[in-house]
Amino acid sequence: MGRDFKTWLSGFRNSISDYSYYVNFDKVYRNVDSIRIELNILNSLIGSDNIENDFEEIVKKYPETLKCIPVLLAVRATEIYAIDGDGEFTYNFREPNLNVEQYKEFMRKTGLFNLIANHLVNNLVDYATGVETGLDSNGRKNRGGHLMENLVETYIKKAGFTKNESYFKEMYIHEICDKWDIDLSAISNQGKMEKRFDYVIKTNKMIYGIETNFYTSGGSKLNETARSYKQISQEAETIDGFTFVWFTDGKGWNSAKNNLEETFDVMEHIYNINDLENNIISEVFK
User: Fold this and answer.
1) Which of 47, 133, 144, 272 is the most buried (most CB within 10 A)?
2) Contacts by residues 275-280 (CB-CB < 8 Å, ≥ 24 positions apart)
3) In sequence order, what are the residues at sequence separation of 6 or more whose Cβ sits closer than 8 angstroms to the Cβ of residue 113?
4) Per-residue DSSP letters for 113-133?
5) Separation in Å, CA 13 to CA 4, 9, 259
């Protein structure tokens, strides 16, 4: 008896955010620790009555303290461009390219001198930690893109497969062809398209190419993804010894459910998180 699409879709999740999704504090602490000494040197400027002169003395004696400045402005780059009526400048904070007077102007015009001298912060290490936390939160989109991938991998391992022995991460078609001497030209458009699978599982009988994704919101990309994976699954059916498997989930699919249903109707191996929890990997990958 075939699966019912509406029942399958109704089990899609709103989110799969894990605890590390929100902020990677290990990364935050590493970034701050890398400039902790320099930040502590600059701490001597807090509350200074003559901050411009004190800053100049510090920069002349410890020019490496300049590398902290972008972080205090929540900027990742080592070079910062600025323009106003006095001209335009590109400030290099890793390898100083301007005189100290120009760096003082930067500190003055960006408001950093005011921030430090007027006790608006009490400790630049603590301040930088807060800035790094905010910057890291911007990385949630990238982390979110890997959440489904990571979740699927946990179930692959749970099913008994071993990384780089029986399952492989991020393999291109040409790598699969070379490793197992299989012809995947039907998928690669005779070698013109370099497709990469999130995972590849190799058993004694079959090679499985796996794609994973999770969509919390809708958009045109979902329709394109459904059509593309439908085509890949149909192309894979013409290849002996190869099976295409798609793990997807997320309430975003409600906006593209018609296209997803078209793929569901013709694709044998399309699964969601409920299927993973119900041991589908052990059932399918043999």
Assistant:
1) 272
2) 275/247, 276/151, 276/152, 276/155, 276/247, 279/159
3) 51, 52, 55, 104, 107
4) HHHHHTTS-S-HHHHHHHHHH
5) 17, 9, 18
252 and 14 Cβ atoms separated by less than 8 Å = no
Cα dihedral across residues 160, 286, 168, 30: positive or negative: negative
- In the chain, the amino acid numbered 196 is R
User: What's at 269, amino acid-wise?
Assistant: H
- Cα 120–Cα 121–Cα 124 angle in degrees, nearest 5: 150
Question: Please, what's the largest Cα pairwise distance for the chain?
Answer: 81
Predicted confidence (pLDDT) per residue in 220-252, tens digit: 889 999 999 999 999 999 999 999 999 999 999
| pLDDT tens profile 174-188 | 999 999 999 999 996
| Token reading at 199 | 């995972």
CB 268 within 8 A of CB 234: no
Give the number of residues written for the chain.
Answer: 286
- Which tokens in the block code for residue 45? 């400027």
